[in-house]
Amino acid sequence: MAENMLLLFVIFLPLLGGFFVLYAKDNEKQPANNAVHTALLTVFVNILLIFGLFSFVGMETTGKQLQYSCQFLSFIRFSFGADMLTLLFTLGCQMAVLVGILSLKYEKQNQKNILFYALLYLSFLNGYFFALDIMSFFIFFTVQLYPLYMLIGLSLPQNRHQNLVRLCVHHFFGAALLCAGCVFILSLKQNDILLSHIDKLHLSYSKSIMVWGGLFFALILRVPIWPFHHALTSVWPALKNPLSFIALHILPLTGIYGFMRCWPLNIPFEISVLSPVFQTLCVITMVFVALGEYANFGAKHKLSNYVFVYDLIYLLAVFLPTDIIWFNIAYSVFSFLLIASCLVVIEFCVLQESIKANTNARGGLCKMPRALLLYSLFILAAAQLPVSAFFSNNFVIVSKIFNYHLYMGIVVVLCMTLAAVSLLRGFYVLHDENCATAPSKVQIQDLDISTFIMIMLFMAVLFISLIKPLWFVFEKGL
Amino acid sequence: MLENILYALSELTLLTGILILLCGALFRTSSQRFYFSVSKTVVLISALFAIIFYNKNFLSPYFISSAETALVFVLSAGLVVVWLFLSAKWFYSHKELNPVWLCCLALCLLLCFSLIIQTTNFGILFILIAALTCMQYLLFILSRNSEELYHTGRRYLLISLLFLILCGTALFYIKDHSLQYDAVAEYLTQIPDTFRIFVLTALLCLLLYLLGIAPFHFWIADRILPLIMPVATYFALIPILFLWFLFFKINQNVLFNFTEPLQKIYYIFGILSALFGIIIANSSHFIKKTFASISLFQFGIVLLVFSTFRQNVATPCFLYIELYTFVLLGIYICLHAVKINGEYPVTLHSLRGLNSVHPFVAAVLMFLITVLIGLPPCSFFLTQFMMLMHVVKIPWIIYVVLLGSVMFVPVYLKIIQSIFLLPREQNFDRTDFSLYAGLLMYLIILIILSIKPQYFLIQELILSNG
Description:
The complex is a heterodimer.
Chain A: H1 2-22, H2 33-54, E1 66-73, E2 76-82, H3 84-103, H4 111-130, H5 134-143, H6 145-154, H7 161-186, H8 205-220, H9 230-235, H10 242-262, H11 269-272, H12 275-295, H13 299-318, H14 326-356, H15 369-382, H16 389-404, H17 406-431, H18 449-467
Antiparallel strand pairs in A: 1-2
Helix pairs in contact in A: 1-2, 1-4, 2-3, 2-4, 3-4, 3-10, 3-14, 3-18, 4-5, 4-6, 4-10, 5-7, 6-7, 7-8, 8-10, 10-13, 10-14, 12-13, 12-17, 13-14, 13-17, 14-15, 14-16, 14-18, 15-17, 15-18, 16-17, 16-18
Chain B: H1 2-7, H2 9-26, H3 32-52, H4 67-92, H5 100-118, H6 122-142, H7 147-173, H8 181-190, H9 193-211, H10 229-253, H11 259-283, H12 287-306, H13 314-337, H14 354-357, H15 359-373, H16 379-389, H17 395-407, H18 409-421, H19 433-451, H20 454-465
Helix pairs in contact in B: 2-3, 2-5, 3-4, 3-5, 4-5, 4-10, 4-13, 5-6, 5-10, 6-7, 7-9, 9-10, 10-13, 11-12, 11-17, 12-13, 12-17, 13-15, 13-16, 13-19, 15-18
């Protein structure tokens, strides 16, 4: 029972921490120092709690082991649960946000508000990952858009606010479709319809189309697949702080997680005819994104396109008619979140320093040895070299895609290679001494030691995972 | 006789209140506070009597009181008290104005509405609606501070008269027959089609006009802007519950034989309202007009859902309207709490940077706006969800409602953006402490309703039994 209550605690602890952050006392020298520390402590405690939850679940990927449910209204019963898959997604998000919070030390404005909304977002994300029934799934699916809007809005230039509104309308449209699906499902007068049981409901043909279509579009709108990609890509490059970048980067992964939870292995007949069209769209988008990444010179653009490519690969993998690679997907997502967030934070530091020095970021890493070390390690991991479990899990995922469809597998591998090469090019630009435009007299500050240690720690987690995946999980009773 | 007087104590209290106010005006009581205190006390006492004698009828069978009429009256009385409280704030900053007429009108309107929802006779209803129209016109006059409003008021009166004459003509033709609701319902099935269409048209036009459903929305949704704050608040909040209750009552007691043709008519009016609401809200930069068009949209979707005429569909519709009014009340309290150089903000632009000066008001406003977007699991979302579950057999209505709500997202985000994301350009005045306290109390109620919607849904039992 206590471990079931722990689920609720993991969901609501960041929310509570958010309010503490909002009322943290200001320090004259460093205005939001206390707020940053409170946020860090909250997320850190949450990570420890999630580690604790790992010890209560088995290695099975399907079926949630921990469960908590409560009757809300006569027709609504909230159920929450966790299994290894959920916990990996949750842990990845907590760690990514933790890295993002570290970077807020460099932010000058609105730190408290940004931290508050980041923690609120994290709380709703946890709720979304733990949701077991359709209603709580929908609630957290929708509710996470509010803190996200504020989080992005606070770090977006004024001239891009229209793009943000477009992004929100885009996602609310998805939420409305999911809401319609929920109405149809709950009208069957069963108050505890679990996500995994939706395909067992007796729906009429038209209702089936509306339920599955609504679910499909609601989740697919989260992923930057053509023609729904523009809302996300128009906001992404303009973001001014890494925390909002990370938050937005998590959003497509929520769509992928949603598919893993609700989508049956055998695609419903009603929309199965559209499956090849969807896969083709996915592959074409991936090719264009990878080419775009290669063509673009900005490190920020390269990273965002790199993230897109992997989002699309996960989406393709989730749609394979097998669930044996789901655990690999979850583990790969966990590593991917860590790698991408650490790269974003380091890149941001380099950009900040170059702005301070009034130069561009080319060659910026040359005078930042700590950042250089970390950046090169993470680039190696991101480029699929065997320094982390990211490599091994992606290997399994790609082999399954090959197994399912040879041509699709070839395109995926080509896109992955192109994405990795582009990232390496970006790294070369950042660290090439000949490109450095900053005069030698300009004082450039390296990553501070606490951030360096924290990011190094994450690198260690990734590296040890290569040798023993889930090394941080303890068996029950230990 | 004595029994009748006892059961009409609620109405008699209001009449007494009007007399006290007039006496106060006669003896030149100059204190603004006096008029508001008397009005608020009288409304509260009247609500108390309405609860005590909730199922006792006076002048039966012309007026039938029931649990649901008492519920509507008590809820609206609460709204009137808050409205008077907010209006008092406006009058305190305009010391030269005497609030006696506003207070008198408030009590008269409440009395009129109370009788409207209780009556079961079309003749009485006609007279009461004529009185209501006149009183609302007087409110326009009270608020007359621009040439535009003068014309709007006159147009309102003329069109009201037109619809009243239309309705009066219809009643004149059926004068030989009883005008009781049930008798008229039966009579309508026996008369020729042409005459039936005429009677129904006259009745529906009057009702939809009073509700401000598109295309009859021009007198309120389009013209709320120049109204002074107390009058704008009245039109935005007070008549909603009474008029919708009347609409549901007439549909269920009189028009139940004509659901098929009515359904199509309501579809058209509902879609038009939703469409007009979306267009006006997205193109408007004025606060009051934006919220008036949001109301227009909400009324449109309620009409759409109600048009299915499914069993008990009126209950979730009424609950939805009630909760919407409650949320709107919170927004108006927030708007009263914000002043720029002694004036209430007019445009969305004038709310820029509100967060930096009044963070509490800004936070409440933001919360309310997210509730309006449909923040689950708030009660507003739940009532919408319950309402939609009644029309699951007609899926297009669900999509119209939900996609229409999505169309409002840019409007809501524009407001949030002004409040939170844009830098401040003007100086906001200090907020009255009592408004802060009121807002806090309001917020607590809203949070309780969100966490425990059961407290709110208790009303479902009362309304369903009715």
